[in-house]
Amino acid sequence: MSDRMTAPEGEYALARFPEDPRDLLRAWDASDAYLLRHLAESGTRLDGTLVVVGDRWGALTTALAAHRPTQITDSYLSQEATRANLERNGVEADTVRLLTTRDTPPDRVDVLLVRVPKSLALLEDQLHRLAPAVHEGTVVIGTGMVKEIHTSTLRLFERILGPTRTSLARQKARLIFCTPDAKTVGARGDDPWPYTYRLPDDIGVLAGRAVVNHAGVFCADRLDIGTRFFLRQLPKVPRGGRVVDLGCGNGVVGTAVALADPDAEVMFVDESYQAVASAEATYRANLPEAGTTVEFRVGDGVEGFAPGSVDLVLNNPPFHSHQATTDATARRMFTGARRALRPGGELWVVGNRHLGYHVTLRRIFGNSELVASDAKFVVLRAVRRS
Fold first, then answer.
1. Is residue 201 pLDDT above 50, yes or no?
2. Which of 140, 175, 200, 286 lies in the 20 to 30 Å Cα band around 225?
């Protein structure tokens, strides 16, 4: 859905990525508009190095393009949305510098604008990484919807950068104002990310092994119960088969496949740069000298995979897009998986029972089989027939 955001800088046509006419969610919200309005009304100077962190679909970066901002995001989809929205609004691509959370941030930051992420850990990691570039004259402003900003959010800014306060709420959005303090920045301590823990003993081939999580990856300090259930149900891989861990997160599913079958070719895919870095670290920690053919890819699902080139896809799809509950991501993953699978190839999915993925799979594949279930989760199997 393409929509128009009105801001003091002008009016902008914006869309999420990939653009889907069925998607009614906007590419901006009241917190983006609140921040842009505040910058204009307060007369905040935007010269020097302007850094925008966590811009979800490029609304802030597009509106502030005249100031040549650097955008930092963990999301491949957000970065692609930014590129598309810049082009949609006639902005030259080289006007904006696009970085990921895995890239080295700028050496100096004069204005830091932070779209508060859902993950407190990701915010912590990004503030730690940016702190050396911040100085006492840096303008630091965060923005988010009221339900996204908590006392713990403010404490992070205060502990890592300096004194922090919030604005009044407008249209259910709020701003965060932080004044960097050299003493606070110097005493902030070490960045606790990435975090490593050991897996439980009842999950098969991965029992007791190490998992590495970079900040922002789902369930960063423990194995989530859905993946735990999935690991107990994993299928046998066709000998030497090509397997995709789709939406790989920290990579435990794909790593389990590689451990069980050294002849398998395993592809780890996620739209999060932090997730793919975690998957690679988890894999390397457990198979440092493996003969498995392996690839780690950041992207939009299996886009770019040749049709009919995959034997097995394993998937635990997310059912949120930031704060919105939606099955759009799962539908796109299932559709992409069917295209990438060879005839006879299989998609195995784990999900909450109430999400009704069996209906979606039947619509896309023409079939869906219940492999296992418990009180909360189901594991489903769909086969590409032709």
1. yes
2. 286
